[in-house]
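TA notes, week 10

Several of you asked for a full example with nothing omitted. So below is the full record: structure tokens for the whole chain, then the designed sequence directly under it. When grading your own attempts, check the secondary structure regions first.
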């Protein structure tokens, strides 16, 4: 979810082109959420605007890790945890069994997601997998990813960027 929100709601570069969310933020946030939770109820425009701010702050963590600034990334995660009052809590709702949340009742939807995403990043940063947070290395792309591959060598946000780089390298070799 964290990657989806950062990539959908923060401006920058994507696949060689400038990127800004090209649909209303509520639709972009809802689309990102439904990629992981197909029955997500969706975001209102105010919730999506708040979530876009949270996504910008989450992006700082990926950028810091890309720069090798683990301490800065950890400090940003701690600020997010504090600001969103993240804490573990078992909850049961909507006919689902008990499951773990990292926010309490009464928060905003964006704030609740901020707490959950910050906690997820804290779990990754506090483990041996902290180097699995990345920013795409393809030219003109700054979308983020979490490397869940077995060998931990992912460098691209998507197969589209990977293919773009490989095609460019092939063409360059063919010219020489």
């Amino acid at each position: 979810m964290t990657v989806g929100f950062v990539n959908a709601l923060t401006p920058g570069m994507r696949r060689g082109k400038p990127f800004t969310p090209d649909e209303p933020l509520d639709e972009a946030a809802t689309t990102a959420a439904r990629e992981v939770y197909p029955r997500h109820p969706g975001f209102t425009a105010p919730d999506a605007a708040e979530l876009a701010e949270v996504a910008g702050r989450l992006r700082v963590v990926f950028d810091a890790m890309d720069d090798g600034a683990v301490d800065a990334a950890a400090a940003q995660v701690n600020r997010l945890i504090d600001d969103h009052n993240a804490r573990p809590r078992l909850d049961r709702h909507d006919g689902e069994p008990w499951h773990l949340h990292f926010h309490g009742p009464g928060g905003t939807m964006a704030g609740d997601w901020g707490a959950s995403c910050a906690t997820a990043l804290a779990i990754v940063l506090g483990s041996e997998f902290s180097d699995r947070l990345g920013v795409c290395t393809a030219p003109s792309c700054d979308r983020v990813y979490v490397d869940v591959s077995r060998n931990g060598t992912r460098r691209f946000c998507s197969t589209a960027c990977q293919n773009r780089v490989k095609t460019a390298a092939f063409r360059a070799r063919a010219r020489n």
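The longest helix spans residues 45-66. Use that as a sanity check on your answer.
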